[in-house]
Specification:
The complex is a heterodimer of chains A (784) and B (152). Chain A is of the alpha+beta class and 784 residues long. Helix content of chain A is 28%, strand content 24%. Chain A contains 20 helices and 28 strands. Chain B has a single domain, classed as Alpha-D-Glucose-1,6-Bisphosphate, Chain A, domain 4 (2-Layer Sandwich), CATH 3.30.530. Chain B has three helices and eight strands, in the order ββααββββββα. In chain B, strand 3 and strand 4 form a beta hairpin. Chain B is globular and about 45 Å long. Classes of the chains: A alpha+beta (784), B alpha+beta (152).
């Protein structure tokens, strides 16, 4: 029987999901269900003088109007669970419902519970809140300047933390360097825009004291823990179910006030309660991504050896620290300052700032896209300064394969890889040299073509639990799985992660089916229900397969080992004389003497004839805690055509060579690359969340926030190299975020390359026609 | 989101007639179909209900308005703060009368407004244009109506 590992079979979950047959949180219907809607602040910053709920409480269908006063002492502050050490992190209280002060547009001040969704939303308009507006601050750099509006009494100067990272001696490297380049980079705020908005349904059984919470969660076990902490309800009385989840990109990691309030309402009202945000609410209150203002510099020799990198980063956190927020611009960002290179000296300072904006948290790549972008932009600036081709500078500085595993300046150790092979393959595929010639010719005709290279590596497969403890992550980072074999040989596997679009219902079934030599149809993957699945830490940081898949593999191996012992007993053979062949254990040299997996499943489950001391049943659980992170890598190259008259950028070709180790399902890997690249191209060319100076979100709808459309995207030529990691038994690295990480700098580098003859060295993304045109006009000395 | 507008229509009427019209809340209200109601709490404090349409949004604001810095027959300022479900509005307007001829007055006005909440986030693209048109039309209509009244 051919193995399924490596086979690009179609995703088993898709027929359900694309025919409207999935079950999402908002699809949950319960007897006597009520509906919640939130009253939210229209001001970015204001003191609350009075909240008058009388009219709302009397409105038709309204069951309850709940304010901050009502929940005092009953619903704790919304927790932050990434307590990054050694950075003087300040975590001011984040009330689930504001009582004295609102700190961003969307901050909730009251919750309506009514018999219908319409009644709840109508009653929102009847809550009369008397605000006293205060000056607001929205920019992470300006927010920490003196004289700026202050958000929290506990946080002087709005400085949430000041985090340092250093390796080698960057100051000395810069002092001695022949060449230095610097940039001010704005990494704009982004809206994750998962297809499914957030939703929560809560039901409470007074008789048993059991709370059931359905929620759009990437990590139901973390939500169970956070709900327990926030509501003071014992963890074993809480069941969190995250049914089908329509994407998250990080925005469904955090614990939000909304879910806790819905649970509280169900517990106090004795009715089940549902809340679902609409798209504008999603844009206003669901966490955003990025939001950096960066001062970055690189130094090196005159002949292309990079010797140092320094940064000063202003990272916006929004009004409060969301669940994982402090770890994103620090641990997940600054530790990657050597990038894919042997840069021996790095030094960075990250200043976290509270601003009157929606909280920022992980967004596809979370910190690593920001790191890769600044490094890759600097490499291009440095290359241009010394008059060397940027691809050749990369080739000169990439970590050589024979140095792997390689410990970089920040102290982390990259697991494996041949970075040069990926670069060379990408250059060959896009005909790098040929394009340079065409570019030269085109320039003579007044045609501006550009080519941009980005060589990245990223830290993912989060990660060893011991490291989680050291970096202040409020949980473990192992994974677990239970593999249960039924008497008929059918298999259910329960996993601790919560895939929400990444295809693990398929890839994980491939792993199990291979192990047992059974058809994939005989294997079902179960995720998302804390009642049935073992403790896990969720799906983010490209960890599901590298950590969760490894746990699953180990559980399946344990089951098979037991089956082998049973087979030896039933065949009256020595275990050492058995071999696994085509779904059967058979006696070596005597293949007629064999026990198929299905037969062993039956015999183990009926337990009529077990070896002495062997327990009945055929199931096993395994926990897997990796010894290190994994570091996927690759090179992306794009070619662009820039219209000098309009500033419009057309991506001509997009070639990427990624290495995430062996592929369980090549089609799914490619799909992850495609999605990631498209999100990255969106970030590079068109996406930006805009706040007005007084803290109003100007991009509150899909008419204003430019999510990429298929017609705007290039054809992605996705290629691979295959270097296994020694860190897990599957050899796999993550691929969920790599596309986003690799793509953003290569597009911007290509556009700047096209405009280099005009003396343009940098344009802040997104490279909208207006921005590119303005840069061209400025470079030409014309009016802007 | 902050916006600034201004204008200076000319009015064929006496300075006294223009001044009287400016301070008459019911006359002011009659100029605009957006203003549904005006109640004078006292000669300088008013309560106003006005509707604003921005794209697909229709928002009804309840506004507290106050006249201040009044220089008789010359200039005054008006501060208004409005509330609507999920939206906010603050406007500060100043106007100055200049007599160009015995019966020709220039009414120079400026308005600074700040809009927040749903109107800002959903209507941002259309808001500035809509608000500018509303403000400019209002003062032009006011000027026309005072001129017309003076002519009769």
């Amino acid at each position: 029987m051919a193995t399924l590992f490596g086979s690009g079979i179609k995703r088993r979950e898709d027929p359900r999901l694309i025919t409207g047959s999935g079950t999402f949180t908002d699809d949950i219907k319960l007897p006597g269900l009520t509906f919640a809607a939130m009253v939210r602040s229209p001001y970015a910053h204001a003191t609350i003088r009075k909240i008058d709920t009388a009219a709302a409480a009397q409105a038709p269908g309204v069951i309850a109007v709940i304010t901050g006063k009502d929940i005092a002492g009953k619903v704790g502050p919304v927790p932050c669970a990434f307590n990054v050490p050694n950075c003087d992190l300040k975590l001011p209280p984040h009330p689930a419902l504001a009582t004295n002060k609102v700190r961003y547009v969307g901050d909730a001040v009251a919750m309506i519970v009514a018999t219908s969704r319409a009644a709840a939303r109508d009653a929102v308009d009847l809550v009369d809140v008397d605000y006293d507006p205060l000056p607001a601050t929205v920019d992470p750099e300006k927010a920490v300047q003196p004289g700026t509006a202050q958000l929290h009494d506990e946080v002087p100067g709005n400085v949430a933390f000041t985090w340092h990272v250093a390796g080698g001696d960057a100051d000395q490297a810069f002092a001695q360097a022949a060449v230095k380049v610097s940039l001010r980079i704005v990494q704009q705020r982004l809206l994750p825009t998962a297809m499914e908005p957030r939703s929560a349904v809560a039901s409470y059984n007074k008789a048993t004291g059991q709370l059931t919470l359905w929620a759009t969660s990437q990590n139901p076990h973390i939500h169970r823990f956070l709900t327990s902490v926030t509501l003071g309800l014992p963890e074993h009385k809480i069941r969190v179910i995250s049914p089908d989840v329509g994407g998250g990109f990080g925005s469904k990691i955090p614990g939000y006030a909304d879910e806790f309030l819905v649970a509280y309402a169900a517990m106090t009202l004795g009715r089940s309660v549902k809340w679902t945000e609409d798209r504008s609410e999603n844009y206003t209150v669901t966490t955003h991504g990025r939001d950096h203002v960066e001062y970055v510099e690189m130094c090196g020799t005159g002949d292309g050896t990079i010797t140092g990198l320094r940064t000063k980063i202003h990272a916006g956190l929004g009004a409060y620290a969301s669940t994982a927020a402090p770890g994103v611009p620090t641990i997940l960002h600054g530790l990657m300052y050597s990038g894919a290179y042997t840069i021996p000296n790095v030094k960075g300072t990250v200043i976290g700032a509270y601003t009157n904006t929606t909280p920022v948290d992980a967004y596809r790549g979370a910190g690593r896209p920001e790191a890769t972008y600044l490094i890759e932009r600097l490499v291009d600036c440095y290359a241009r300064r010394i008059g060397m081709d940027p691809a050749l500078v990369r080739r000169k500085n990439l970590i050589p394969a024979d140095k792997m595993p390689y410990t970089v300046a920040t102290g982390i150790t990259y697991d494996s890889g041949d970075y040069h092979a990926a670069l060379d393959k990408a250059m060959e595929l896009i005909d790098y040299r040929g394009f340079r010639e065409r570019q030269e010719k085109a320039r003579k005709d007044g045609h501006y073509l550009g080519i941009g290279v980005s060589s990245y590596t990223e830290i993912c497969g989060l990660g060893p639990s011991q490291v989680a403890g050291q970096i202040g992550f409020g949980g473990g980072l192992y994974e677990s799985a239970i593999v249960r074999v039924y008497p008929t040989g059918m298999v259910r596997a329960y996993i601790g992660t919560r895939p929400h679009g990444q295809g693990e219902e398929t890839t994980f079934a491939q792993i199990v089916a291979d192990e047992f030599g059974v058809p994939i149809e005989n294997v079902e993957i179960v995720a998302g229900d804390t009642e049935s699945t073992p403790q896990g830490w969720g799906t983010y940081g490209s960890r599901t397969t590298a950590v969760g898949g490894a746990a699953l593999k180990n559980a399946a191996v344990k089951v098979k080992e037991k089956a082998k012992k049973l087979a030896a007993h039933l065949l009256e053979a020595n275990e050492a004389d058995l071999e696994w062949h085509d779904g059967k254990f058979q006696v070596k040299g005597s293949p007629a003497q064999a026990k198929a997996f299905g037969e062993l499943a039956l015999m183990a489950n009926v337990a009529w004839n077990m070896p002495a001391g062997m327990e009945p049943g055929l199931e096993a659980s395994a926990f897997f805690d990796p010894t290190n992170f994994v570091f996927p890598y690759g090179t992306h190259i794009a070619t662009v055509d820039v219209d000098l008259e309009t500033g419009e950028v057309t991506v001509l070709r997009y070639v990427c060579v990624d290495d995430c180790g062996p592929h369980i399902n090549p089609m799914i890997v490619e799909g992850q690359v495609h999605g990631g690249v498209i999100q990255g191209v969106g970030e590079a060319l068109q996406e930006i969340a805009v706040y007005s100076d007084d803290g109003q979100l100007m991009t509150g709808t899909m008419m204003d926030y430019a999510v990429p459309k298929a017609s705007q995207m290039p054809t992605i030529e996705s290629h691979f190299t295959y270097t296994p990691t020694p860190v897990n038994p599957l050899g796999v690295k993550g691929i969920g975020e790599a596309g986003t990480i690799g793509s953003v700098p290569c597009i911007v580098n290509a556009v700047v390359d096209a405009l280099a003859p005009l003396g343009i060295t940098h344009i802040d993304k997104p490279l909208t026609p207006a921005r590119v045109w303005a840069a061209i006009q400025q470079a030409k000395g014309g009016a802007r | 989101m902050r916006m600034r507008f201004g204008g200076a229509p000319e009015i064929r009427a006496t300075r006294a007639a223009v001044w009287k019209a400016l301070l008459d809340p019911h006359f002011v209200a009659s100029v605009s179909t957006a203003i549904e109601r005006v109640d004078a709490k006292d000669p300088t404090h008013f309560s106003v209900v006005a509707g604003l349409g921005v794209g697909m949004l229709k928002v009804r604001f309840t506004i507290d308005a106050e006249l201040f810095d009044i220089v008789e027959l010359q200039s005054a300022k008006l501060k208004a703060r409005g509330k609507a479900p999920g939206s906010t509005l603050q406007v500060t307007t100043g106007f100055t009368l200049t007599e160009l001829e015995p019966s020709l007055v220039r009414l120079a006005w400026t308005a600074e407004s700040e809009v927040g909440g749903t109107v800002a986030s959903v209507g941002a693209r259309l808001l500035e244009g809509t608000a500018r048109r509303l403000a400019e039309e209002f003062w032009q209509d006011f000027a026309d109506k005072v001129s017309a009244t003076a002519a009769t």
